[in-house]
């Protein structure tokens, strides 16, 4: 079965086409499975796809709806007025200002921006670049969970996280975390909690590439146990 899915706005730039062509070996597929199929084939677009809705024959379709080649399909990104995506994975350079803007709030008196960058020298060893990969759908879900943990521990605090995948050169940002809160104490604590928790539970892996070799880095903060809850600082 051949399915054609119309794309709009930023999705056209993301996929490089206005119509996405999908071929599957079955006569029908659910919207949920279709979304998963597209995400698996385009992991870099996972965060954007999560915020989109499918339209079937010019009406919004639910995840349990089934579609066939006879249906007119479209993938609808958030329309004007939609909420920003707070937790994102990207292969592009991160705009720290855009991440910070997601947590702006008129009743918050404090905001912090943490930017993790590629360091050239570590213990006398020269790094050429870093390379990141991730289990993207789970990475986004665990970043969202961190955001909820922060909101529960420091009521009223907002957070946004964007992490980069692929190759990240010296001095470029691999992760940007924005936090805002009514008071600075909560803001400082939540910002540190966010990066420590990210390193503990988010399935993102870092490969350090040196002048004379490379190595995938695991947990560097002690025994790795993603089920353990980090204590409040």
TrEMBL record:
Sequence ranges of Polar residues compositional bias: 217-233
Organism: Paenibacillus anseongense
PANTHER family in the cross-refs: MOLYBDOPTERIN SYNTHASE RELATED
Region annotation Disordered: where it falls in the sequence: 214-233
Domain of life: Bacteria
Coiled-coil residues: none
InterPro entries associated with the record: Beta-grasp_dom_sf, MoaE_sf, Mopterin_biosynth_MoaE, Mopterin_synth/thiamin_S_b, ThiS/MoaD-like
Protein name in UniProt: Molybdopterin converting factor
